[in-house]
């Protein structure tokens, strides 16, 4: 279906859209609400996400003092497993804390799942409490409970779903537990049963492989990003999922026809010459999300700094002086900042400890209003968050669950020129931007020959690590390209000159 076929909801209804851009080496998905970018997901062919992957690991070292172990699963760095992330055995009582040295020895084979991405110098975080997702359910083979997503608020529907899953589990003779996902709201009985049969088959395959394959082997991997967006986010609230790649769009059509036929017409193929993310202003929004300063509509300003230990957010009135008293000016700026901070944490995927330095307030009622505004704004965040009270120093501590790299860590690297005090885009990020610009030029202009001017390191990438992707773009676009290294160019700078 073409993009023009989308039905536009009424002005009072929130419009949720998902845009997926597929380009050489990289796939990106953007989630919009009323035209405003809320989340961005990036999957690179060479460094795809490993969260959710299930491996047959091999114990490298047991750390009794930390009650943890390093597990080799075939990644660049050994992964980390804590005793608190291991399934409790039947013989272990609640009164006696299990000890990891009684559970694991060096060289043991163990079935593990990645719960957090490798970040910086840290390896991936693991769990033995496996969870396998499907369209409506998450299957937990080692946990007997049945749960329903807290975002399904209707008590009658919660009871119906819980009873249905319980009865189907008994009918199929399955062990383990299930959680009904948010997209399961309203799911019919037969659809839940189909999901449970599918998950049981996946789990059986994992177990059979785990008995025969060598350690450090991937047994189960998550779906490609476009299909994952459909599985995790496609609900009646989503007006459309638009993708600019025909092959991926056809795969999405197959998925929706099989698992969500009522939503098949919402998977749309974007065919315009203007790049999808440029058409919707996503490229500019991503660039802004990589900057430390975030302007507020009132004229105030946020300064967001990400460090190894925490994220700090400083709130300033900037050019906003208000029209009434100082107290009202500060209150208005802080309330606007609270809403903006919540969106920026989600957009930049910032997690861990976040410390917000709001503008000092004296009135206790004003402090309460700001905390209420921040808590309400964070309610829309799918990641688990907690909000503390305003300290005597005017600081608010927020924690946000972190499972993958932030946007800055994914797309940027430390700048050698400034001794690591700032950051620049990685060479891969610059190359992928260049590929997209080449594709845009080929679609919108009569171009056959092109001269690319870039920093020597970028030219080196195009001739070495990215040579395959570069050749593929040249073939797809039909462009004849000549490369020229410019020593005075910064690592992020490049020019495409039409010959």
UniProtKB/TrEMBL annotation:
Taxonomic source organism: Salinisphaera aquimarina
Cofactor: Mg(2+)
CDD domains: S1_RNase_E
S1 motif domain location: 52-129
Keywords: Hydrolase, Magnesium, Metal-binding, RNA-binding
Keyword Metal-binding set for record: yes
Domain of life from the UniProt record: Bacteria
Keyword RNA-binding listed: yes
Pfam families per UniProt: RNase_E_G
Name by which UniProt lists this protein: Ribonuclease E/G
